[in-house]
Task: inverse folding
């Protein structure tokens, strides 16, 4: 994948799989995005530190809080309620869980990286 001009857009990846996070961090960084990551659903002060992300990629199966609960927290917080959330999971009920969490979209695993990047760019352009 070729490196592109920085977009100055920040993606927050919330996923407990370090290998998956590493792949996504690399791909999105090479696509010109700033990337931050968390390994659990415990948000704490993490969203108050540094710039707010422009979009969040959120897994369902997380330690401490599942992705649906994290999504609900994000949408009920004045600081984060307008940040689009895309859920990324292999869960067979992802469509329903996405609605429960207040996410704008979802990507079912397995998926192509190009499809995920396109979905992120489309959401950021909306």
Result:
């Amino acid at each position: 994948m070729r490196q592109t001009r920085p977009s100055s857009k920040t993606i927050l990846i919330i996923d407990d799989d370090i290998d998956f996070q590493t792949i996504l961090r690399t791909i999105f960084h090479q696509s010109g995005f700033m990337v931050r990551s968390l390994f659990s659903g415990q948000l704490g002060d993490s969203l108050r530190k540094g710039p707010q992300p422009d979009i969040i990629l959120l897994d369902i199966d997380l330690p401490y809080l599942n992705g649906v609960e994290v999504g609900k927290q994000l949408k009920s917080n004045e600081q984060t309620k307008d940040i689009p959330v895309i859920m990324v999971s292999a869960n067979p009920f992802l469509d329903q869980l996405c609605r429960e969490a207040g996410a704008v979209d979802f990507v079912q695993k397995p998926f192509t990286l190009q499809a995920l990047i396109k979905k992120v760019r489309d959401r950021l352009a909306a």
Residues 18-30 form the longest helix (13 residues). The chain has four helices and five strands.
